[in-house]
Amino acid sequence: MAVPATMRAVEITKPGGPEVLAVCERRVPVPQAGQVLIEVAFAGVNRPDALQRAGAYAPPPSASPLPGLEAAGRIAAVGPGVAEWKVGDEVCALLPGGGYAEYALAPAAHALPVPKGMGLREAACLPETFFTVWTNVFERGGLTAGERFLVHGGSSGIGTTAIQLAHAFGARVFTTAGSAEKCTACLTLGAERAVNYREEDFVAVLKAEGGANLILDMVGGDYLPRNVQALADDGRLVQIAFLSGPKVELNFAQVMARRLTITGSTLRPQSDLAKARIARALRETVWPLIEAGRIAPVMDSEFPLAEAAAAHARIESSGHVGKIVLKVR
């Protein structure tokens, strides 16, 4: 595959709103040992991209400064020592950055084959959310069949993924969303109960069921003490973001008395080895479910690469249901 010297990309011209995203020309990166170069067809748009654009989520020192944490396309070149992929293979990959471009680098171990029967558009929506949900819900959170699981933001990319995976593995799934339409979408994905947080109190709903064994939250703020109230004894709370802020007053006496666990993680700073381990687990455990048609990304909208600013405005409006993608080529 002939690889050009330069490529189109979207850069962050300065910290700010969606309008600071601009199309630029960059040198095509060269894969180093253990890396692959992907000719990007589609790139996923995620909340961390918007945080990076706003200056609140700096990329690791070794990562591309361009936004974009997941993409799908074809292998254009492989670096030294890469044996598992060859030029022309269709893959989706978790990226350290740089997905908003015609070519992007990824560690070879963070790439996964495009599931059989799935297009590149849908495959671009798999890595960021599936890596995040798998590690936080099933590994860190320890969710098992029959447990009561509450995920906030059920209509988001993370939420729609978490609902489907938890349901597929036999959990009782509860979720929150901000409209009747979004609640209906969550129910169709496998949620047993979808709580419109504008009209109902999720704490009361979960308490009536005996409490949540596990909660996955990206809201933070005043949800933190309410989450603790909604947990069953010995319950676990996993925090993955703080859309409403990370600081709150919390009475930890009930955490001790009821043997609760509060934990959390972010994906991007984790080591390459940790992400490779997650990729292997997904390929072995989740990819067969995708190929069997039991799980699929929920698609919200598609924007051309040059309209990345509009895609960011869409995700920050919270009006979306599921994933947003950029069409790169």
TrEMBL record:
Domain of life: Bacteria
Pfam families associated with the record: ADH_N, ADH_zinc_N
Keywords: NADP, Oxidoreductase
Domain Enoyl reductase (ER): 16-326
UniProt cross-references to InterPro entries, sorted A to Z: ADH-like_C, ADH-like_N, ER, GroES-like_sf, NAD(P)-bd_dom_sf, Quinone_OxRdtase_PIG3
NCBIfam families xref list: quinone_pig3
Record-given protein name: NAD(P)H-quinone oxidoreductase
Species assigned in the record: Albidovulum sediminis
